[in-house]
Design goal:
The chain is an alpha/beta fold and 353 residues long. The protein has 2 domains: 153 residues, Nucleotidyltransferase, domain 5; 166 residues, ATPase, nucleotide binding domain (Nucleotidyltransferase, domain 5). It contains 11 helices and 10 strands. Helix 6 runs antiparallel to helix 9 and helix 9 runs parallel beside helix 10. The radius of gyration is 21 Å and the shape is globular. The two termini are 26 Å apart. Bound molecules: adenosine-5'-triphosphate (ATP) and magnesium ion.
Length: 353
C-alpha cells in the first residue's frame, strides 16, 4: 500500500455524505475519449472526442487505432473540460476513470492518464465500472431519481435487466444469452448496407417502414427476464439472403422497422415485467440503445399502464460520455467504496454485478 493511498483513504472518508462533490470523470473504454466535470448532480462540462468517423471505414472499432487516438486526444480534452467548467484542477474532490469493461489498450490510456493526474494533484482516484456508469448518469439526468429502481442496460456490449437496491448495489435479474442488443442493431445494419454505428441508422430507416415481417421471438411464453438476439439477427440475414437468391429487392425499411419493433418490444417487456415482479415503482433505461425513441416510447407506455415512472437520459448521455463516469464516482463515494492505489489495472470483461 502506497503512502499516497493511505492519504487518499482519509481524504475519501472526509468526502462521504457531501452532495456537492466536484468530480472529474474520464472515459476511454471504446471509441470515444470523454471527460466531464460534475458538481453534485450538475454538469459543469462534458467533452467528447468521438472516433466514429475514423473507424467508420472499417465497419467497426479497430482497437489499436482507438488506443492511439485516445493518447492524442486525452490531455487536451481534460484541460478543455476543466476550462469549460471554470474549475481549477486543485479544487477537484476526486477523479473517476473507467477501468472496464472495454478494449484493454483503450482502457489503459485513460487509466494511466488518470493515475498520473490524480497522483500529481494528490486527489483520490476511483476505478469506475463503465456499465454502472451508464446507469448512474440517470441520477444527473433526473436529479429527483433515487434508488431503488429496476433498470434496463441496453448498450453495445451488454444487455440486462437489473435491480438497483441502492446507489452502488446492483443485482442482475436477466441477461443476454448471446449478443448484446447494440451489437444486434449494428450487425443487422450491416446486412441492410447501413454504416457503423448501426443503431441510429436503423432507427432512421425504420421510420419509413412497416413492422410486417415476421421474426422469431425468443423466450416466448416464459416468464424469464433473459434476452437472446442472435436468432433474430440470423432470421434477418436468412430473410435477406432468400430474397437475394430470388433476385427480389430487399424491403430495407420494413425489415429495419420489423427488427426494431421486435427488439424494443422484448426489452420494454422484460424491464416492466421485472419492475412489477420486484414491486418497484421506477424503471430506468441505461446505455447507447436507450437513445432509441421507439424503446423509450414503449417503456413509457408499458410503465405508465402499470403505475410505474420511467426515467431515461437525454440522447447525448445514452452513449459513452464522461458525465456517467463522474456520476458513478459520486455513487461509489456515497456508498462507502474505497479509492484505488497505483496497482489499479484495467479489466476488459468486468461484470455489471
Ligand atoms: N438510436 C439508437 N437506436 C438503437 N441503437 C442505438 C441508437 N443509438 C446508439 N445505438 C447503439 O448503441 C451502441 C453504443 O452504445 P454504448 O456506447 O453504450 O455501447 P458501448 O460503450 O460500445 O458498449 P458497453 O457500454 O456495453 O461497453 C451501438 O451498438 C449503437 O448502434
Ligand atoms: Mg458504453
Amino acid at each position: 500500500m502506497s503512502a499516497y493511498f493511505e492519504r487518499m483513504k482519509k481524504k475519501t472518508d472526509a468526502l462521504r455524505g457531501r452532495d456537492d462533490l466536484l468530480i472529474l470523470g474520464i472515459e476511454s473504454s471504446c471509441d470515444e475519449t470523454a471527460c466531464a466535470v460534475l458538481r453534485g448532480r450538475q454538469i459543469l462540462s462534458n467533452k467528447i472526442a468521438s472516433q466514429v468517423e475514423i473507424h467508420k471505414r472499417f465497419g467497426g472499432v479497430v482497437p489499436e487505432i482507438a488506443s492511439r487516438n485516445h493518447v492524442l486526444a486525452i490531455d487536451n480534452l481534460v484541460k478543455g473540460a476543466l476550462e469549460e467548467a471554470g474549475v481549477r484542477q486543485e479544487k477537484l474532490d476526486a477523479v473517476g476513470v473507467t477501468y472496464g469493461a472495454g478494449l484493454l489498450g483503450a482502457l489503459l490510456v485513460g487509466e494511466s492518464y488518470a493515475k498520473a493526474f490524480a497522483y500529481a494533484l494528490d486527489k483520490p482516484l476511483f476505478a469506475v465500472n463503465h456499465i454502472r456508469g451508464h446507469i448512474a448518469v440517470n441520477y444527473v439526468a433526473s436529479p429527483r431519481l433515487e434508488p431503488p429502481f429496476v433498470c434496463l442496460i441496453a448498450s453495445g456490449g451488454h444487455t440486462a435487466v437489473a435491480f438497483a437496491a441502492d446507489y452502488d448495489e446492483i443485482s442482475v435479474m436477466g441477461t443476454t444469452q448471446d449478443d448484446a442488443c447494440g451489437e444486434a442493431f449494428d450487425k443487422v445494419a450491416r446486412v441492410l448496407g447501413l454504416p457503423y454505428p448501426g443503431g441510429p441508422q436503423i432507427e432512421k430507416l425504420a421510420a419509413a417502414g412497416k413492422p410486417d415481417i415476421s421474426l422469431p421471438r425468443p423466450f416466448k411464453g416464459t416468464d424469464s427476464f433473459d434476452f437472446s438476439f442472435s436468432g433474430i439477427k440470423t432470421a434477418v440475414i436468412n430473410y435477406a439472403n432468400t430474397l437475394k437468391m430470388r433476385g427480389e429487392e430487399l424491403p430495407r425499411a420494413d425489415l429495419a422497422c420489423s427488427f426494431q419493433e421486435l427488439v424494443t418490444d422484448i426489452m420494454s417487456d422484460n424491464l416492466v415485467r421485472a419492475a412489477i415482479a420486484r414491486k418497484c415503482d421506477k424503471v430506468v433505461i441505461a446505455g447507447g440503445v436507450g437513445a432509441n425513441k421507439r424503446l423509450r416510447a414503449k417503456v413509457e407506455e408499458k410503465a405508465a399502464a402499470a403505475g410505474i415512472t420511467a426515467f431515461y437520459p437525454p440522447v447525448g448521455l445514452c452513449t459513452d460520455n464522461g458525465v456517467m463516469i463522474a456520476a458513478q464516482t459520486a455513487c461509489m463515494i456515497r456508498a462507502g467504496r474505497q479509492c484505488s492505489d497505483f496497482d489499479l489495472d484495467a479489466d476488459a470483461d468486468v461484470r455489471i454485478e
